[in-house]
Amino acid sequence: MTPEQRHFAYELITNPPPGSKLAEAKAYGIDLTLLVENLELSVAERWARLYAFESFLEKLRPSVTVKHE
Amino acid sequence: MIPDPRRVITVLNKADVEYVVIGGVAMVAHGSARTTLDMDVCYRRSKENIEKLSEALQPFHPRLRGAPADLPFRFDARTIQAGLNFTLFTDLGDLDFLGEVSGIGSFEAVLDASEINQVAGIECRILSLSGLIRAKQAAGRNKDLNAIHELEALRDLKKRTGL
Q: In chain B, which residues have their Cβ closer than 8 Å to the Cβ of A22?
Protein backbone atom coordinates (compact mmCIF):
# COMPACT_ATOMS: atom_id res chain seq x y z
CA MET A 1 0.00 0.00 0.00
CA THR A 2 1.47 3.34 -1.03
CA PRO A 3 1.22 6.37 1.28
CA GLU A 4 -1.31 7.85 -1.17
CA GLN A 5 -3.45 4.69 -1.08
CA ARG A 6 -3.26 4.62 2.72
CA HIS A 7 -4.32 8.25 2.96
CA PHE A 8 -7.18 7.70 0.51
CA ALA A 9 -8.27 4.50 2.28
CA TYR A 10 -8.51 6.29 5.63
CA GLU A 11 -10.43 9.12 3.98
CA LEU A 12 -12.86 6.58 2.53
CA ILE A 13 -13.48 4.77 5.81
CA THR A 14 -13.82 8.02 7.75
CA ASN A 15 -16.35 9.45 5.33
CA PRO A 16 -17.63 6.60 3.12
CA PRO A 17 -19.36 7.77 -0.09
CA PRO A 18 -23.13 7.82 0.55
CA GLY A 19 -24.86 4.74 -0.79
CA SER A 20 -21.58 2.78 -1.11
CA LYS A 21 -20.92 -0.67 0.30
CA LEU A 22 -18.42 0.98 2.65
CA ALA A 23 -21.19 3.22 3.99
CA GLU A 24 -23.53 0.24 4.38
CA ALA A 25 -20.89 -1.76 6.24
CA LYS A 26 -20.06 1.14 8.54
CA ALA A 27 -23.75 1.65 9.32
CA TYR A 28 -24.07 -2.08 10.02
CA GLY A 29 -21.25 -1.84 12.55
CA ILE A 30 -18.24 -3.21 10.70
CA ASP A 31 -14.96 -1.76 11.99
CA LEU A 32 -13.49 -0.48 8.74
CA THR A 33 -10.18 0.56 10.34
CA LEU A 34 -9.39 -3.13 10.92
CA LEU A 35 -9.82 -3.79 7.21
CA VAL A 36 -7.35 -1.07 6.23
CA GLU A 37 -4.88 -2.34 8.85
CA ASN A 38 -5.16 -5.83 7.37
CA LEU A 39 -4.71 -4.58 3.83
CA GLU A 40 -1.34 -3.18 4.90
CA LEU A 41 -0.18 -6.76 5.48
CA SER A 42 0.70 -9.50 2.99
CA VAL A 43 -1.46 -12.63 2.80
CA ALA A 44 1.27 -14.57 4.62
CA GLU A 45 1.27 -12.00 7.42
CA ARG A 46 -2.54 -12.09 7.69
CA TRP A 47 -2.48 -15.88 7.97
CA ALA A 48 0.38 -15.81 10.45
CA ARG A 49 -1.57 -13.40 12.67
CA LEU A 50 -4.71 -15.55 12.48
CA TYR A 51 -2.75 -18.68 13.39
CA ALA A 52 -0.90 -16.95 16.24
CA PHE A 53 -4.15 -15.54 17.66
CA GLU A 54 -6.02 -18.85 17.51
CA SER A 55 -3.04 -20.74 18.95
CA PHE A 56 -2.94 -18.27 21.84
CA LEU A 57 -6.67 -18.79 22.49
CA GLU A 58 -6.17 -22.55 22.35
CA LYS A 59 -3.53 -22.33 25.08
CA LEU A 60 -5.87 -20.27 27.25
CA ARG A 61 -8.81 -22.64 26.91
CA PRO A 62 -7.79 -25.22 29.57
CA SER A 63 -7.45 -22.48 32.18
CA VAL A 64 -10.89 -21.01 31.48
CA THR A 65 -13.66 -22.14 33.79
CA VAL A 66 -17.30 -21.24 33.54
CA LYS A 67 -18.86 -20.25 36.84
CA HIS A 68 -22.49 -21.23 37.23
CA GLU A 69 -24.50 -19.28 39.78
CA MET B 1 -7.90 -25.85 16.41
CA ILE B 2 -6.99 -24.02 13.26
CA PRO B 3 -4.04 -25.41 11.31
CA ASP B 4 -1.26 -23.14 10.11
CA PRO B 5 -2.62 -22.33 6.63
CA ARG B 6 0.90 -21.98 5.22
CA ARG B 7 1.72 -25.49 6.37
CA VAL B 8 -1.47 -26.93 4.89
CA ILE B 9 -0.89 -25.42 1.45
CA THR B 10 2.71 -26.65 1.56
CA VAL B 11 1.50 -30.19 2.25
CA LEU B 12 -1.16 -30.05 -0.49
CA ASN B 13 1.19 -28.48 -3.04
CA LYS B 14 3.89 -31.05 -2.34
CA ALA B 15 1.38 -33.80 -3.15
CA ASP B 16 0.21 -31.89 -6.24
CA VAL B 17 -3.39 -31.78 -4.96
CA GLU B 18 -5.79 -29.53 -6.90
CA TYR B 19 -7.58 -27.35 -4.36
CA VAL B 20 -8.93 -23.89 -3.60
CA VAL B 21 -8.79 -22.29 -0.14
CA ILE B 22 -12.30 -21.14 0.81
CA GLY B 23 -14.16 -20.04 3.97
CA GLY B 24 -12.75 -18.01 6.84
CA VAL B 25 -9.10 -18.55 5.94
CA ALA B 26 -9.81 -17.23 2.43
CA MET B 27 -11.62 -14.26 3.97
CA VAL B 28 -8.60 -13.46 6.14
CA ALA B 29 -6.37 -13.73 3.06
CA HIS B 30 -8.43 -10.93 1.50
CA GLY B 31 -8.14 -8.73 4.59
CA SER B 32 -11.11 -9.75 6.73
CA ALA B 33 -10.75 -9.16 10.46
CA ARG B 34 -12.62 -12.32 11.38
CA THR B 35 -11.14 -15.36 13.05
CA THR B 36 -11.93 -18.99 12.37
CA LEU B 37 -11.32 -22.28 14.09
CA ASP B 38 -10.81 -24.44 11.01
CA MET B 39 -9.57 -24.27 7.45
CA ASP B 40 -11.94 -25.02 4.56
CA VAL B 41 -10.63 -26.35 1.28
CA CYS B 42 -12.51 -27.27 -1.89
CA TYR B 43 -10.92 -30.18 -3.77
CA ARG B 44 -11.31 -31.57 -7.29
CA ARG B 45 -13.23 -34.83 -7.27
CA SER B 46 -11.25 -36.63 -9.94
CA LYS B 47 -9.98 -40.12 -9.15
CA GLU B 48 -6.37 -38.99 -9.44
CA ASN B 49 -6.84 -35.94 -7.20
CA ILE B 50 -8.74 -37.91 -4.57
CA GLU B 51 -5.85 -40.38 -4.36
CA LYS B 52 -3.35 -37.54 -4.03
CA LEU B 53 -5.44 -35.88 -1.29
CA SER B 54 -5.77 -39.13 0.64
CA GLU B 55 -2.04 -39.82 0.46
CA ALA B 56 -1.13 -36.24 1.36
CA LEU B 57 -3.15 -36.37 4.59
CA GLN B 58 -2.28 -39.90 5.74
CA PRO B 59 0.84 -38.79 7.70
CA PHE B 60 -1.38 -36.41 9.67
CA HIS B 61 -3.83 -39.06 10.91
CA PRO B 62 -7.15 -37.64 9.69
CA ARG B 63 -10.20 -38.65 11.71
CA LEU B 64 -13.78 -37.47 11.65
CA ARG B 65 -14.36 -34.44 13.83
CA GLY B 66 -17.11 -34.87 16.39
CA ALA B 67 -17.39 -38.62 15.84
CA PRO B 68 -16.75 -41.16 18.60
CA ALA B 69 -13.04 -41.96 18.86
CA ASP B 70 -13.70 -45.66 18.36
CA LEU B 71 -15.69 -45.15 15.16
CA PRO B 72 -13.74 -46.89 12.39
CA PHE B 73 -12.71 -44.35 9.77
CA ARG B 74 -10.10 -44.23 7.05
CA PHE B 75 -9.67 -41.13 4.93
CA ASP B 76 -8.74 -43.17 1.89
CA ALA B 77 -9.65 -42.78 -1.77
CA ARG B 78 -12.63 -45.12 -1.41
CA THR B 79 -14.09 -43.13 1.50
CA ILE B 80 -13.55 -39.80 -0.26
CA GLN B 81 -15.10 -41.12 -3.46
CA ALA B 82 -18.16 -42.31 -1.55
CA GLY B 83 -18.60 -39.01 0.28
CA LEU B 84 -18.39 -35.35 -0.65
CA ASN B 85 -17.68 -33.10 2.34
CA PHE B 86 -15.46 -34.11 5.24
CA THR B 87 -14.87 -32.33 8.54
CA LEU B 88 -11.60 -33.67 9.88
CA PHE B 89 -9.41 -33.41 12.89
CA THR B 90 -5.78 -33.94 11.85
CA ASP B 91 -2.34 -33.51 13.36
CA LEU B 92 -2.19 -30.30 11.33
CA GLY B 93 -5.41 -28.99 12.90
CA ASP B 94 -9.09 -28.94 11.96
CA LEU B 95 -9.57 -29.22 8.22
CA ASP B 96 -12.77 -29.30 6.18
CA PHE B 97 -12.63 -30.69 2.65
CA LEU B 98 -15.58 -29.82 0.44
CA GLY B 99 -16.34 -31.28 -2.96
CA GLU B 100 -18.53 -28.32 -3.87
CA VAL B 101 -19.48 -24.92 -2.49
CA SER B 102 -23.04 -23.65 -2.06
CA GLY B 103 -23.75 -20.64 -4.26
CA ILE B 104 -20.87 -21.47 -6.59
CA GLY B 105 -21.06 -25.15 -7.45
CA SER B 106 -18.54 -27.86 -8.26
CA PHE B 107 -14.76 -27.59 -7.96
CA GLU B 108 -14.53 -26.40 -11.57
CA ALA B 109 -16.82 -23.43 -10.81
CA VAL B 110 -14.91 -22.71 -7.59
CA LEU B 111 -11.65 -22.81 -9.54
CA ASP B 112 -13.07 -20.29 -12.03
CA ALA B 113 -13.98 -18.02 -9.11
CA SER B 114 -10.52 -18.27 -7.53
CA GLU B 115 -7.30 -16.27 -7.76
CA ILE B 116 -3.69 -17.40 -7.71
CA ASN B 117 -1.81 -16.01 -4.72
CA GLN B 118 1.81 -16.15 -3.67
CA VAL B 119 1.94 -16.74 0.07
CA ALA B 120 5.51 -16.45 1.35
CA GLY B 121 6.71 -17.87 -1.94
CA ILE B 122 4.13 -20.66 -1.99
CA GLU B 123 1.57 -20.56 -4.80
CA CYS B 124 -2.02 -21.35 -3.92
CA ARG B 125 -5.51 -20.69 -5.19
CA ILE B 126 -7.88 -18.73 -2.96
CA LEU B 127 -11.57 -18.08 -3.59
CA SER B 128 -12.06 -14.49 -4.78
CA LEU B 129 -13.91 -11.84 -2.79
CA SER B 130 -16.84 -12.07 -5.22
CA GLY B 131 -16.86 -15.86 -4.86
CA LEU B 132 -16.85 -15.61 -1.08
CA ILE B 133 -19.75 -13.15 -1.19
CA ARG B 134 -21.74 -15.53 -3.41
CA ALA B 135 -21.04 -18.43 -1.05
CA LYS B 136 -22.04 -16.44 2.02
CA GLN B 137 -25.22 -15.20 0.32
CA ALA B 138 -26.14 -18.78 -0.54
CA ALA B 139 -25.49 -19.97 3.01
CA GLY B 140 -28.01 -17.37 4.17
CA ARG B 141 -27.33 -17.76 7.88
CA ASN B 142 -27.64 -14.81 10.28
CA LYS B 143 -23.92 -14.91 11.04
CA ASP B 144 -23.15 -14.64 7.31
CA LEU B 145 -24.78 -11.21 7.10
CA ASN B 146 -21.88 -9.72 9.04
CA ALA B 147 -19.41 -11.48 6.73
CA ILE B 148 -21.21 -10.24 3.61
CA HIS B 149 -21.06 -6.62 4.80
CA GLU B 150 -17.37 -6.99 5.59
CA LEU B 151 -16.52 -8.67 2.27
CA GLU B 152 -18.48 -6.11 0.26
CA ALA B 153 -16.69 -3.31 2.13
CA LEU B 154 -13.33 -4.90 1.34
CA ARG B 155 -14.25 -5.24 -2.35
CA ASP B 156 -15.38 -1.60 -2.44
CA LEU B 157 -12.25 -0.40 -0.63
CA LYS B 158 -9.92 -2.35 -2.94
CA LYS B 159 -11.72 -1.12 -6.05
CA ARG B 160 -11.64 2.53 -5.02
CA THR B 161 -8.01 2.52 -3.84
CA GLY B 162 -6.67 0.21 -6.54
CA LEU B 163 -5.30 -2.22 -3.96
A: 153, 156-157, 160
